Each structure stands twice: as C-alpha cells, then as structure tokens.
Amino acid sequence: MARRRMLVTGGSGYLGDWIVRLARDDWDVSATYRTHPPTSAVPGVAWYRLDVRDEAAVRALLQKVRPAALVHTAALNPGMGPVDDLDAVNVGGPRHVSRAAAAVGARLIHVSTDVLFDGTQGNYAEAEAPSPVTPYGRSKAGAEEAVQNAVAQMDVEAVIVRTSLIYGWRPRRDRQSRWVVDDVKAGKRVRLFTDEYRCPVWVESLAAAVVELAGMAYTGVLHVAGAQALSRYDFGLRLLRFYGVAPDAIAAHVVPSLAAEAEHIRPLDCTLDCFRARSLLETPLPGVDVVLGGRSFLEKTG
Ligand SMILES: NC(=O)c1ccc[n+]([C@@H]2O[C@H](COP(=O)([O-])OP(=O)(O)OC[C@H]3O[C@@H](n4cnc5c(N)ncnc54)[C@H](OP(=O)(O)O)[C@@H]3O)[C@@H](O)[C@H]2O)c1
After folding, report:
1. Does the C-beta of 177 come closer than 6 Å to ligand 1?
2. Is the Cβ–Cβ distance between 240 and 184 less than 8 Å?
C-alpha cells in the first residue's frame, strides 16, 4: 500500500531537519529549503527549493506533492533576517501555506512560539489570548491568525503547535548553545537573563511530537514544550556544563543580568502549560535535566 505523503517546509532548518528524519519511518517525505540546500544525506527525501512569500509557488508545490500532512516550520527567527521581512515570511508564509493546504485537503501542522505572550503571567494555557511585545512575537501571532482564518473560511484541518527554546546537539548544536558555549570558551563575556523564563524543548522530542500529531485527529492549539521551566541563566549554565566548559571559565565570563538591561523589550515569563500535550501524546516531553543528565560529553560528541 502506498505510504501517506508529508511535506515539511523549512526542512533545512534545525527543527525541520529532525522532523524529516523521524517522519521517514512512516511517511513518504518531501521537504523544502530556501537558501541552504540539505547537506546531510537523509535518504529517500524529495527536496524542493521554495520561498513561502511566493503564494503561486507554494500553491504549485502543494498541487505537485499533494501531501496528506503539511508541516510548516519555515520562518524567520529573531536575528535571522531583516525585521522588515518578518511579516512577509512569518505571516505571508502561513497564509499561503494554509490556503494551499485547504486546496489539496492536507492536514496542517503549523509551528508557533511561546513569545507570542507578553510574559507577565507565565504557565500559559492554550486558551490564553496572544499578547506579543516583540516584532517577532507579533509576526508569529499574525501567523496564527492567518491559520485560524483559513480554518474558519476554508475548513482546513489544522494544529498550531506553540513551543519554546529548541535545543539539541546532533547532527549539530542549536544556535543558542553554539553562541553561549563558543563565546564563553573564546573568553567573551556572555550576559544571561536571570528573570526570563522558558520551557526549553529537546529538538528530538519536539520533532517526534510533531510527527505524532501529523498522524492524529487532534485540531486546535497545542502547547508542546519541555517539562522544566528555567531562566535563561540557569539554562545557559546547564548547557555550559554539558559541553564540558571549565567552571572557572563559566565563573569568569558569564554575567547574570536582568532583562530590563537589554537593548530591546523582552517578555519575561513565557513558560507554557503543556498538560494537554502530555495527556494527548505518547511522545515524552522531558525537561532539560532529564535530557542532558546522564549523557557524557564523549557520548554526545562521539
Ligand atoms: N528555535 C527556537 O528556539 C524556536 C522557539 C519557538 C518556536 N520556534 C519556531 O519553530 C520553527 C522552526 O524553528 P528553527 O529554529 O528550526 O528555524 P531555523 O533553524 O532558523 O530554520 C528556518 C527555516 O525556515 C526556512 N526559511 C526562512 N525563510 C524562508 C522563506 N522566505 N521561504 C521558505 N523557507 C524559509 C529556512 O530555509 P533556509 O535555511 O534554507 O534558508 C530554514 O529551513 C519556526 O517556525 C520558529 O518560529 C523556534
């Protein structure tokens, strides 16, 4: 029997790469990139170059692939491109993708973020209204609105997965780990916020949860993040120890800071209540200490 088809936008990204790898067991996978053609050999995946700002191109690709599930991870993360492009990519992209999904009857899994909340409350549940305070947060709130409009007007079957800081070490380290660890090792001062809280999520468990959701009937918003709430400072210290950075280098170069000292406004407590995801999914969503604990430096680099 022919396997169901999945299309992953942003397959060249950190999360998209893992979704592609894990989905191949059960799905016939196609994936897209924009500027970084895939370098790692993931066999059996059909790759397409796509700019999600181009609605006609999105529609044409969906008509060609006709996926049963469309996982939309492609986005501009903070600092990854001009602020002027945020709305075109992060709002226009989901608008085009959700309309195209409706046209071919694909189930849509859209990846969203915890920073569409203002961070004044913490432990946000799915029913809380978005209250973004940053340009990126506003663009991702606009993305959710675009998806919700397609659900209301075009009857798309959609899940919005709100997640938190994504980390991992294979096949490469995530951006935040690279920045913190490499700068401290290079003797640079690194400011880490002690009053900014998130629920960091291991890329491999998040990707497994997304693939599981693609094969389920659940629709609506779902908070999918790690089980442990940590400040940026405490998360950073755990990463530094995990990557074997010497305690004296940590003491010398890590500067505990308050978010109010940052150049731009930052939401403080964007922790997510993931009770619904834990009840619904078989995929475990462990916290940082469980994920990093027990893995020696040699195991993870070997
Ligand atoms: N990273 C986090 O900590 C975090 C936290 C919460 C939510 N999220 C959300 O999770 C998702 C995945 O994040 P990530 O960290 O894995 O992202 P990432 O590594 O920065 O990858 C972004 C992906 O989007 C693609 N892309 C960018 N602009 C595009 C465009 N105009 N058209 C088509 N594709 C485009 C990139 O393609 P090329 O590289 O080939 O150009 C890449 O594949 C995003 O939706 C993000 O908002 C991330």
Report:
1. no
2. yes
Per-residue model confidence as pLDDT tens for the chain (302 residues): 679 999 999 999 999 999 999 999 999 999 999 999 887 667 899 999 999 999 999 999 999 999 999 999 999 998 887 878 999 999 999 999 999 999 999 999 999 999 999 999 999 999 999 999 999 999 999 999 999 999 999 999 999 999 999 999 999 999 999 999 999 999 999 999 999 999 999 999 999 999 999 999 999 999 999 999 999 999 999 999 999 999 999 999 999 999 999 989 999 999 999 999 999 999 999 999 999 996 655 455 54
Q: Domains, the chain, ranges and CATH?
A: 5-165+202-223 (3.40.50.720), 168-199+228-301 (3.90.25.10)
Does 75 contact ligand 1 (Cβ within 6 A)?
yes
Which of 8, 9, 15 most suits a substitution to test ligand 1, by most atoms within 8 Å of the C-beta? 15
Amino acid 299 reads E
Ligand 1 atom, smallest distance to 16 CA = 16
